[in-house]
UniProtKB/TrEMBL annotation:
Keywords: Cell membrane, Membrane, Transmembrane, Transmembrane helix
Pfam families: CbiQ
Broad class of where this protein is predominantly found: membrane
InterPro entries in the cross-refs: ABC/ECF_trnsptr_transmembrane (IPR003339), ECF_transporter_component (IPR051611)
PANTHER family: SLL0384 PROTEIN (PTHR34857:SF2)
Cellular location(s): Membrane
Keyword Transferase: no
Membrane topology classification: Multi-pass membrane protein
The UniProt record lists the keyword Cell inner membrane: no
Domain of life: Bacteria
Segments passing through the bilayer: 21-53, 59-82, 115-140, 146-165, 234-257
Record protein name field: Energy-coupling factor transporter transmembrane protein EcfT
């Protein structure tokens, strides 16, 4: 699926998924404790450049993603902008009171979300879901039955979605033969859920029988596809560290906001 939206791959594609997840957690904590909006502004720009250059995704898909991130960030900041506290009033109408301080706080919150969203998108576009579960089994020693169960469940999601649309089409064809109360409202929802669940249970049972017939167990396993830590993990760690350091330095030199503390 990722190959359909990507033009090329970078070293981040070869980085261990656990390293990316750990860096995402560290970046989350780091962003939470940065209260200077100037630093967050530069870090947002750096993360945007990283996503554009290192994700390898076609520009049209990145444009759609960036529009969605921009809209969601703007919506999340509205409450703080419209109803925040401050002394320098910019606009007042009824209960809406926009001050310079509340505006900066709102932009501050939206930039936090944008940074995490941009890095999260970079991780998603450069990581295969199967590699995540292999890393959990090989590096973290998660039992294979749990990892393969989640992997199989994720693989079944597109099948369930396809069955749902197939069920809708079948109901449209037989609409004249089925009473309206059985295909609309709560009863319609209930029948849809029961149908999809019954199909999923049968499919899971067949999958369990197939795994058992193949000799699947919790014993010692060998892996055709292996994940490991490499120099690319060090490259990504150094890149994120350099990005945060550069944002801190640029935040003191180039200051688009007069405020240095948005708390």
């Amino acid at each position: 699926m990722l190959d359909a939206v990507k033009n090329y791959s970078t070293f981040i594609d070869r980085t261990n998924p656990l390293t990316k997840i750990l860096l995402a957690a560290i970046l989350f904590v780091t962003v939470i404790f940065i209260h200077n909006p100037n630093v967050l502004f530069h870090l947002t720009i750096i993360m945007l450049i990283m996503l554009l250059l290192l994700s390898g995704v076609k520009i049209k898909y990145l444009t759609i993603l960036l529009i969605f991130i921009l809209i969601s960030g703007f919506i999340s900041s509205l409450y703080m902008i419209f109803y925040g506290e401050g002394t320098q009033t910019l606009f007042r109408y009824g209960i809406i009171h926009i001050t310079e301080e509340s505006f900066v706080r709102g932009i501050h919150i939206s930039m936090r979300g944008a940074i995490l969203s941009l890095f999260g998108a970079l991780v998603i576009f450069t990581t295969k879901i199967t590699d995540v579960f292999y890393a959990l089994m090989i590096q973290l020693k998660i039992k294979p039955k749990y990892a393969y169960s989640f992997m199989a469940a994720i693989r079944m999601v597109p099948i369930i979605v396809a069955e749902y649309f197939q069920l809708r089409q079948a109901r449209k064809v037989r609409k004249a033969l089925i009473h309206k109360k059985y295909i609309s409202g709560f009863r319609g929802l209930k029948s849809t859920i029961v149908t999809l669940l019954s199909q999923s249970i049968r499919r899971a049972y067949r999958l369990g029988i197939a795994m058992e017939s193949k000799g699947f167990s919790d014993g010692v396993r060998t892996y055709y596809h292996r994940t490991s830590f490499s120099k690319y993990d060090l490259y990504l760690i150094a890149l994120i560290g350099a990005a945060v350091f550069a944002a801190l330095e640029f935040g003191t030199v180039i200051s688009p906001f007069t405020s240095t503390d948005a708390r």
